[in-house]
Amino acid sequence: MSDIRIATAEDQILLDKEAKYCSYGDTVHYIEPPRIFSRCEGSYVWDTEDQAYLDLQMWYSAVNFGYANPRLNNALKQQIDTLPQIASQYLHKGKIELSEMIAVDAKKKFGLDGRVHFNVGGSQSIEDSLKVVRNATNGKSLMFAFEGGYHGRTLGASSITSSYRYRRRYGHFGERAQFIPFPYHFRGPKGMTKEEYGSHCVQQFARLFETEYNGVWDPKVGQSEYAAFYVEPIQGTGGYVIPPMNFYRELKHVLDQHGILMVSDEIQMGFYRTGKLWSIEHFDVQPDVIVFGKALTNGLNPLGGIWAREELINPKIFPPGSTHSTFASNPLGTAVGLEMFKMTNEVDYGAMVMAKGKFFLEGLQDLHKRFPIIGDVDGLGLALRCEICGPDGFTPDKATLDYMVEEGMKGDMVVDGRKLGLILDVGGYYKNVITLAPSLEISYPEIELGLKLLEQLLVRATKR
After folding, report:
1. Following CA atoms 299, 300, 303, 309 in sequence, which dihedral angle do they give, to the nearest 10 degrees?
2. How far apart are the first and last CA of the chain?
3. Whole-prediction pTM value?
4. Which of the residues 74, 95, 152, 460 has an alpha carbon 20 to 30 A from that of 245?
5. pLDDT of 225-277, one tens digit each?
6. Residue 296 DSSP label
7. ∠ CA(107), CA(344), CA(246), 5° rounding?
8. Measured on CA atoms in the order 293, 294, 298, 300, is the torsion positive or negative?
9. 9-68+349-463 adopts what CATH topology?
10. DSSP code of residue 388
11. Biggest CA-to-CA distance, the chain
């Protein structure tokens, strides 16, 4: 193992400038010194010393199709030479055709007519969805959301995100959420199967509507005080927790009984991360609203949006001017989004991602057998989790995972004579979960390489 890495003289100059001129409000500084990167391609990024790092988190699942994907990059370049910018109040071909692709796909899968509205990213699209929901429910501002759920850090999005630390200094400006337990089976009650625990969680939620004294339901008029339930079908920041397959079907039944909308937050799990365009597709339910972002443009442009049922978003109920962003539906972003859809229509990404995910999960399961500090592994497609625990295989061990992340960023591991670093992301309720979101284009040899690098980090953690 190497000692603490020292920044090069050139990097140190930049870091000194960053310390003086850059806000730390959107920087993390988990690793000291922070890395400065210079180029990227496929599943790799390189720092200023040209040290390669295999990236298994791909910009929090924003770069699903690999860094510098030639086809998507070329779509951006071509758009720059034709219509690089136009005010979002005007129409252009890309906006219309991308909306059509998303809406037609939703009609085919869910049997529902709907429309698409764009914004500049995930959190901003959550804000737009809150407007749609409030508008359609006579201004109701109370929402249900999950413990462990993450929907962004704008004011509305942070109000329905379960981490108080994102709201602590700012308070509430409208929305409020009641947070409901998610069926996190590994840390749930013992003696239940995963499906039984999913049903148990739904039953506990349904109990809120049994009597007016549970505070959410007026049985005399048949109305709930709550407008919608915001769900991440697979929890992202919460640790890539995958619920039982019966859970959302049973939950949606309760919501429909009480006139509560289901909003599916697909910002991190959308665009084939789980082997489906939308992760909610795995669970055989019809969402009322879908929120998307991140991988729509493979990280090349800040574009997100919502799809909503026709009844919620048609021009009579949601007229021009209901919401607006200067850069929404910009032609550079929509051009890349269109090309992404064309690309994924030509290749069976669903089958490809499920096969690679199965291979990767089998490798994680092998590590699970050999290293007692791994408490749980799971995955759906290429959304995979590896929970790091104490020697008992259950007690959360954030410190050990922090150590592994730092060791991975040293760039000093060797596999087949090649020196490499490994980029991992940390999530989970106790910040002890490796949330693995590799490129969907990752090769099988690169998956094997990632597993070998993980094994080296586990060995280091065990021996320290």
Report:
1. -70
2. 10
3. 0.97
4. 152
5. 999 999 999 999 999 999 999 999 999 999 999 999 999 999 999 999 999 99
6. G
7. 55
8. positive
9. Aspartate Aminotransferase, domain 1 (3.90.1150)
10. E
11. 73
